[in-house]
Write a structure and sequence with these properties.
By secondary structure, the chain is mainly alpha-helical. The protein has helices at about 5-25, 40-45, 50-60, 65-95, 100-135, 140-179. The protein has 6 helices and no strands.
Amino acid sequence: MNGFLNWRTFGVLWLGGLGILMVLLSVGSELYTEAAPRGILDHQSAGTAARIDEIQKSWAAIGKLSFAKYAMAADLVFIGLYSLGGVLGGWLVWSEARSSSLRRVGALSVAAYLLFGLLDYGETLSQFAQLLAETGNDSLAAIAANLQPPKFVAFAVSIIAMPTALIWRAWENRRQSVA
């Protein structure tokens, strides 16, 4: 395949997204405070404007409010790369699969990455708006808190489905070339 829909593009997007995630995880402790011992995860699950304000004030007190804004902007880039790469990879697996079972895993990947992207963008944009405004908003805090659990489920499915699909695809291809 040429153009955008190819394995190279998948690799750049998906692995680029995972790379950004690794960086975010490695610097996440910069946002650990007494008010937010889990850092950004506490901001995601805050649920109320008052709790958001408490967390953001704790970050401002340690001089990390700007850092939090940059980290959340990087999170938005991660979501786009990882989700788009995963949807593309799942579609490529689905379209090239030799077995109906692998087709289903490819379709599962597409669905998981699409759902993860939508949920995580909803959550993170809700957070980012509050962070940029430097004040909490009950509605946005509730949206982020309610999207977090299903987002984690979609992420768990996606992070298992894609490697499974890639390994299965390689096995099918090797088996086909030997036969």
